[in-house]
Write a structure and sequence with these properties.
four-stranded mixed beta sheet; globular
């Protein structure tokens, strides 16, 4: 199943997947229709990017996400070790 939209704390986001772009998340102050771009793939980098952009959509300030210790990378490593993987990829 491909997720096309998801409602986070900051609003309803339209989800796109891309290979060259690491990730992008709009902020409600700048756009009427919110978009999020996440990596396409099934690896730990993709999982980390998805968590990172989701945390932005939940309203977590940049100062907590763009530092030496990115929480999304720690969470992704933990989930990866637990066996979390995508079951299907969009083609």
């Amino acid at each position: 199943m491909v997720v096309k939209t998801h409602t986070f704390k900051l609003g309803k986001y339209y989800i796109d997947q891309s290979d060259p772009i690491e990730g992008v998340c709009d902020t409600p102050n700048n756009y009427e229709r919110l978009h999020m771009i996440i990596l396409n793939g099934n690896d730990i980098r993709t999982l980390s990017s998805t968590i990172h952009e989701s945390m932005h959509a939940e309203g977590i300030p940049d100062r907590y996400l763009h530092g030496d210790k990115d929480s999304s990378e720690n969470i992704a490593r933990f989930l990866w070790r637990l066996g979390w993987r995508r079951t299907k990829e969009e083609k």
